[in-house]
Write a sequence for this structure.
C-alpha cells in the first residue's frame, strides 16, 4: 500500500512539474510581472509612518527656458519599487512646489503601473493626458520626458518607460511624440 | 492518512489525491495520463512550424509558406521589399529550403513585439504580387511578378501617382481560395527578359512635403483660435510652389486639403514615391505663451531600437535557417529595420535639419531654438533624409498673429527651400 502511494505520489509530482514547466514556457519571457502582489497589499495596511523616507527627484517644466527642472521630494521608502514609483508619479501629478509648470494636464490620473522583468515600466494614464493636452511638439516632449526621466532617474530597476493611455497603447500622445514603443530617458532636456 | 500527512509537504492537495487513488488506482492513473497529454497538447500548440519554399515559374516566382494551422497574415510592399506579417502568440520555428530564383534575392525572418515577419527581397523594384491561401495543408501562396516593362515607369509630372497606402492583402484564413495553384496565366504575354530597374536619372526625383495634422486631427491651438493644421497646409503649398519653380524636382504633398492622413500613410507616401527628401511642416505649442522661436527636429533613436534589432535578427530558433544565411545577411538586416527605416538616414537627416535651421534663423527673425532630436512617429518609417520643422509657436500670441500672415508663411517656405538647396548641393546619392 505504501509503495503504491509513493508511486502514485511521484506520478502526481511529475505531472505537476510538467504542468508548471508548460505554464511558464507558454507565458513567454515578456510576461508582465504585476508587482501588486500580496506582500505589497499586506504592507500597505501597515502604517506608512513607521517606514523611513527617501529623497527622489521629480522633473517639471520651466516657463523661462522650456527645459525640465529637477525638484526634490520625500517619499515613503517602501520595500516595493512599484509602490515607490507610483508615489513618484502621484507627486508629479500633484505639481511643483516651486512654481514650475505641471508637465501633465491637471486632471490626469494614474490608472495602472507595473514593471516587466526587463526593466520596462508600463505607466497607464487616464484619457485626460491626451484629451486635455494642448498638443504641440514642445508641450508633448515636456509631458513625456517628465514622466520617463522621473522614473528612470530614481529607480535603477527601470530603464525604459512605456506610456499607455486608458489601458491601451497609443500611436502618439497628441499627434507628435511616438508612444508606440518604450522610451529611454532624455537628460539633455534637463536644464543644468 | 493523518500519519502520512505529517511527513509529506504540500499536504492537502496530495492527500486528497492519494485518498482518491487508493480507492481506484486505475481511474486516477488514467486521469493523470489525461492531464499529461493535455499538457503536451498545450505545449505543442505554442510552437508553430513554418516551411518556406520558393520556385520559379515561367511568369512569376512563387513563395509558399506552409503551416499546420491557418495563419492570418498581411502583406506590405516597399519597392523591392515584401513584408509578410503574421500575428502570433507562442513561438515559431522556420524551415527554409535553399533556393535559387530570378525573382527573389533573399529572405529574412524577424520577430516583433507581437508579430513575426517574413521579408522577401525581390531582385528588383516595382514587382507586383498576388497572394492567396490554400488548405490541406494550410499554405499561403505569394506570386511575385516582374514589373510591366513600359513607359509607365515615368509617371506624368502633372499628376503624381499618389498611393497613400502600402498594398495590403488580408487573409480570410478560413475561406478556401477560389483559385487553383496552377491556374492559367492568361495575362498579357510579356517577354520575360531580365528586367532592368529604371535608371535613377531618368525619373524625376521627388521631394515629399508633409503638412502636419488635418481633418479631425487639428494639432495645437492658438489663443486666437488658430489651428495648427490650418497653418501647416498653406506653408507647405507655398514651399511646393517655390521648389517646383526653381528646381527640377517633383513635389508630392501628403495632403493637399483639410483631411485626415494617418502618420503611417504619410511615411508610406514618401516611400512609395521613392522620395529623396521628406519635410514635415509643423507649428509648435507650449503650456505658456512665453515660449517662442523656430526649431528643426530629426528623429531620435532609442536604445530600444538596438534591442529590437537584436531581437529581430533571427532568434536562433532554427539551426536550419542559420546554416543557410549567406553573405546576403546584410539585406536581412536592412529589411528587419524597416519599421524604423529612418534609422539608416539619421546622419543625413541631421545635416538637412542643420541647413534648414540656419536659413530659418537668417530669414525669419525668430528666436533660434536650434536643432533637436525627438521621437516623432511620422518620421520613423521614412526611408530617406527626413526632418520636421517647428516654424514658430502658435501658443505665443505674437507668433500666432505672424503665422497667419501670407508674408511670414512665404518667408518660412523660402527659408526651408534655401535649406533644401544648400543640403542638395552637398548631398549626392547614387
Amino acid at each position: 500500500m505504501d509503495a503504491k502511494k509513493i508511486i502514485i505520489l511521484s506520478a502526481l509530482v511529475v505531472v505537476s512539474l510538467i504542468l508548471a514547466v508548460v505554464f511558464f514556457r507558454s507565458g513567454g519571457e515578456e510576461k508582465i510581472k504585476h508587482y501588486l502582489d500580496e506582500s505589497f497589499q499586506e504592507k500597505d495596511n501597515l502604517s506608512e509612518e513607521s517606514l523611513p523616507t527617501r529623497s527622489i527627484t521629480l522633473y517639471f517644466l520651466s516657463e523661462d527656458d522650456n527645459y525640465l527642472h529637477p525638484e526634490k521630494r520625500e517619499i515613503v521608502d517602501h520595500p516595493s519599487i512599484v509602490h515607490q514609483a507610483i508615489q513618484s508619479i502621484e507627486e508629479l501629478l500633484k505639481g511643483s512646489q516651486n512654481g514650475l509648470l505641471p508637465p501633465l494636464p491637471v486632471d490626469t490620473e494614474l490608472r495602472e503601473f507595473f514593471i516587466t522583468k526587463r526593466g520596462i515600466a508600463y505607466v497607464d494614464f487616464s484619457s485626460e493626458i491626451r484629451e486635455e493636452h494642448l498638443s504641440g511638439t514642445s508641450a508633448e516632449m515636456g509631458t513625456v520626458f517628465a514622466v520617463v526621466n522621473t522614473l528612470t532617474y530614481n529607480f535603477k530597476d527601470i530603464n525604459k518607460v512605456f506610456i499607455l493611455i486608458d489601458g491601451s497603447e497609443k500611436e502618439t500622445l497628441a499627434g507628435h511624440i511616438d508612444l508606440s514603443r518604450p522610451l529611454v530617458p532624455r537628460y539633455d532636456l534637463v536644464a543644468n | 492518512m493523518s500519519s502520512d500527512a505529517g511527513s509529506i509537504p504540500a499536504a492537502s492537495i496530495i492527500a486528497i489525491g492519494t485518498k482518491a487513488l487508493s480507492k481506484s488506482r486505475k481511474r486516477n492513473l488514467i486521469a493523470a495520463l489525461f492531464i499529461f497529454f493535455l499538457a503536451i497538447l498545450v505545449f505543442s500548440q505554442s510552437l508553430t512550424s513554418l516551411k518556406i519554399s520558393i520556385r520559379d515559374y515561367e511568369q512569376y516566382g512563387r513563395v509558399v509558406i506552409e503551416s499546420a494551422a491557418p495563419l492570418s497574415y498581411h502583406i506590405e510592399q516597399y519597392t523591392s521589399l515584401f513584408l509578410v506579417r503574421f500575428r502570433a502568440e507562442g513561438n515559431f520555428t522556420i524551415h527554409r529550403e535553399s533556393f535559387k530564383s530570378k525573382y527573389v534575392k533573399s529572405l529574412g525572418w524577424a520577430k516583433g513585439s507581437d508579430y513575426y515577419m517574413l521579408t522577401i527581397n525581390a531582385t528588383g523594384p516595382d514587382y507586383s504580387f498576388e497572394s492567396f491561401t490554400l488548405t490541406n495543408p494550410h499554405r499561403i501562396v505569394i506570386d511575385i511578378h516582374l514589373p510591366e516593362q513600359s513607359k509607365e515607369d515615368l509617371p506624368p509630372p502633372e499628376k503624381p501617382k499618389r498611393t497613400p497606402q502600402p498594398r495590403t492583402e488580408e487573409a480570410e484564413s478560413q475561406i478556401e481560395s477560389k483559385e487553383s495553384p496552377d491556374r492559367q496565366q492568361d495575362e498579357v504575354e510579356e517577354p520575360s527578359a531580365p528586367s532592368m530597374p529604371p535608371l535613377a536619372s531618368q525619373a524625376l526625383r521627388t521631394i515629399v512635403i508633409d503638412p502636419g495634422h488635418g481633418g479631425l486631427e487639428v494639432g495645437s491651438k492658438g489663443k486666437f483660435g488658430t489651428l495648427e493644421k490650418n497653418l501647416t497646409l498653406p506653408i507647405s503649398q507655398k514651399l511646393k510652389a517655390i521648389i517646383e519653380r526653381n528646381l527640377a524636382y517633383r513635389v508630392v504633398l501628403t495632403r493637399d486639403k483639410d483631411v485626415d492622413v494617418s502618420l503611417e500613410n504619410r511615411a508610406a507616401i514618401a516611400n512609395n514615391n521613392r522620395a529623396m527628401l521628406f519635410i514635415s511642416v509643423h507649428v509648435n505649442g507650449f503650456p505658456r505663451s512665453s515660449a517662442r522661436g523656430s526649431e528643426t527636429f530629426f528623429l531620435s533613436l532609442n536604445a530600444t531600437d538596438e534591442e529590437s534589432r537584436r531581437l529581430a535578427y533571427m532568434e536562433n530558433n532554427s539551426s536550419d535557417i542559420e546554416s543557410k544565411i549567406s553573405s546576403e545577411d546584410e539585406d536581412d538586416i536592412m529589411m528587419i529595420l524597416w519599421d524604423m527605416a529612418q534609422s539608416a538616414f539619421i546622419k543625413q537627416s541631421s545635416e538637412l535639419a542643420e541647413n534648414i535651421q540656419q536659413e530659418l534663423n537668417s530669414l525669419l527673425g525668430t528666436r533660434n531654438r536650434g536643432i533637436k532630436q525627438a521621437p516623432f512617429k511620422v518620421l520613423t518609417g521614412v526611408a530617406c533624409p527626413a526632418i520636421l520643422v517647428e516654424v514658430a509657436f502658435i501658443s505665443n500670441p505674437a507668433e500666432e498673429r505672424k503665422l497667419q500672415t501670407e508674408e511670414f508663411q512665404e518667408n518660412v517656405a523660402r527659408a526651408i527651400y534655401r535649406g533644401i538647396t544648400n543640403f542638395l548641393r552637398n548631398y549626392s546619392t547614387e
About this structure: The longest strand of chain B covers residues 47-56. Residues 169 and 233 of chain B are 32 Å apart (CA to CA). The longest helix of chain B spans residues 25-45.
